[in-house]
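Sorry to interrupt, but I need a hand with the structure work. It will help me judge whether the discrete encoding reads sensibly. Write everything out right here, beneath this request:
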Amino acid sequence: LPDLDGRPQSLSQWKGKVLVVNFWATWCPPCKEEMPEFSRLNIKYASNSVQFVGISIDSVDKVSAFRKENEISYPLLISNLETLDLSSDLGNRAKALPFTVILRQDGSLQQVKLGKYATSDLEKVLLAALLPRCLLAIFSVILDNLRRFPANLQT
């Protein structure tokens, strides 16, 4: 899908990250309401390999104007109504907006949500998607520290 400059973008460029893909439109009030929180969370979790991406079912001109009026910290891609057919394959049977898809770092589906996301609910889902990676890091640190102890101190 093209970005606001018309350059094609692929979701695969964010492989290895928890990916939050939000289908939205400038004419959708709940979509516009959740975007400031999405921006904030994108910044908050960026260092934890989380990436938000907006896929707009709208024209480049309307999305560009919206972005000029609103600070959005994540990429906005341009699509059309046919993309809602793709979202239907992911569980959006109503083909309604907003619709959000969260993919784990391995690309598997974590969760889908039709409707506006409450920030606390979204953070719980993001943390759950990140949890395996966090646990591995914690266990790795513990094991490294245990290896450093002299054998006579280990019981």
